[in-house]
Protein: Blue (type 1) copper domain-containing protein
Organism: Lunasporangiospora selenospora
Amino acid sequence: MHFKTYAFLAIFVTILVTVVTAAQISVAIENFSFKSQTVKIRINDSVQWTNKDRAGHTATSDTGVWDSGMLATGASFSRTFTQRGSFPYHCAPHPGMKGTVIVE
Ligand SMILES: [Cu+2]
């Protein structure tokens, strides 16, 4: 096969593998805490927070990387993590609620 064909195939397979293996991790907001409090994910995975409390909550990055805004009961917020690192977050109205997303 021609080199260009190989290059195209390599890119295609890389994209396919990324799409197929990217996972979505669910974090419940329940009883004024994030469950699980710490999640370990891979690059390109997403985390979806769902508020299961009657009170409103947020998932707000400690360092300003993201902010879900206020989530009412049953509301969800999803974010895809494209960089490695440890991302601590909290709930804006309840600063005692803390969590961490670790991207490996
Ligand atoms: Cu809260």
In short: The beta strands are 24-30, 33-35, 38-41, 46-51, 60-61, 76-80, 85-90, 98-103. The longest helix spans residues 3-21. The chain has a mean pLDDT of 92. DSSP finds one helix and eight strands in the chain.
